[in-house]
UniProtKB/TrEMBL annotation:
The keyword Transmembrane applies. Keywords: Membrane, Transmembrane, Transmembrane helix. Pfam families: DUF3592 (PF12158). The chain crosses the membrane at residues 6-23, 112-133. InterPro entries: DUF3592. It comes from the Bacteria. This is DUF3592 domain-containing protein. It comes from Streptomyces murinus. Residues 40-105 form the DUF3592 domain.
Length: 136
């Protein structure tokens, strides 16, 4: 009985946390689509990002000039296979005027993809919590 409660609480908490993060990202993407400034950026580098469990991955570094003419560099939030961008490629970038450091690559896989992935994983954890509750 105690194991079931711990499983329900843990899966439920993780699910709610992930849904919260997903909803926050949904709001950010909505703001970017509605109020974002669109510019072109260039992939200037791909940096190695160490992960403890699965080994290193590569994250593209994108540079662009904001509306004041300052050079801004950022790395993408979503990383992994299928998310890489070759060095030298021009990519569409969108950012909020008051926060150019939190720019996003304006491609579906870099804006909507992370939101969908986070929401789905959150639903999986909540579903697991429900399944545990039903079997105990």
């Amino acid at each position: 009985m105690l194991d079931g409660f711990i499983g329900i609480a843990l899966c439920g908490a993780i699910g709610v946390l992930l849904l919260g993060v997903g909803l926050r990202e949904t709001v950010v993407v909505w703001r970017l689509r509605r109020h974002g400034i669109r510019v072109w950026g260039v992939v200037v580098d791909n940096v190695r990002v160490e992960k403890r469990d699965s080994g290193p991955t590569w994250a593209p570094v994108i540079a662009f000039a904001d509306q004041r003419g300052y050079r801004v560099e950022f790395t993408t939030k979503m990383r992994g296979s299928g998310m890489s961008l070759p060095t030298g490629r021009q990519v569409p970038v969108v950012y909020l005027p008051y926060d150019p450091q939190n720019a996003r690559v304006s491609m579906w896989r870099h804006t909507v993809g992370p939101v969908v992935f986070t929401l789905l994983v959150g639903l999986v954890f909540l579903g697991t919590a429900v399944l545990i509750a039903r079997t105990t």
